[in-house]
Amino acid sequence: MGALERIMELGLTLPAVAAPVAAYVPATKVDNQVWTSGQLPFVDGALPATGKVGAEVTDEEAYGFARTAVLNALAAVHAEVGLDRVVRVLKVVGYVASAPDFYGQPAVINGASELIGEIFGESGAHVRSAVGVAALPLNAPVEVELVVEVR
């Protein structure tokens, strides 16, 4: 079963590629890899929430936003080469706009990592960074980027 079929089986939809909010492209292919720009949790062109995790945004909400952001990153990969060409997910980098006393960044970014596992199975096992930051573009609570290997 391909990644697109698995996404549909999970009851999800691969969104349209989010329009860049600055001077960059959503994804680029280099040899047998595709690198995505950081993707925010846009839904139909808008952020479902803004603010810092641990203050205006709960860690449970942020976990869901990480799932949405990784779907947006997969959409960028799909637009660049086709999602069914992904051999494996190599790396996930997740950024969490964090209140000063919030330390649950790894649990938030598990939203992205676990969804990748649901979609790609063993081919979704990846290395990862989960980074707390003071602020993200547009006051987004979460941002996710991917590196994938393609055939």
TrEMBL record:
InterPro entries: Endoribo_LPSP/chorism_mut-like, RutC-like_sf
SUPFAM superfamilies cross-referenced by the UniProt entry: YjgF-like
Species whose genome carries this gene: Corynebacterium tuscaniense
Domain of life assignment: Bacteria
Domain Endoribonuclease L-PSP/chorismate mutase-like stretches: 6-149
Gene3D superfamilies: RutC-like (3.30.1330.40)
Protein name: RidA family protein
Pfam families registered for this protein in UniProt: YjgF_endoribonc
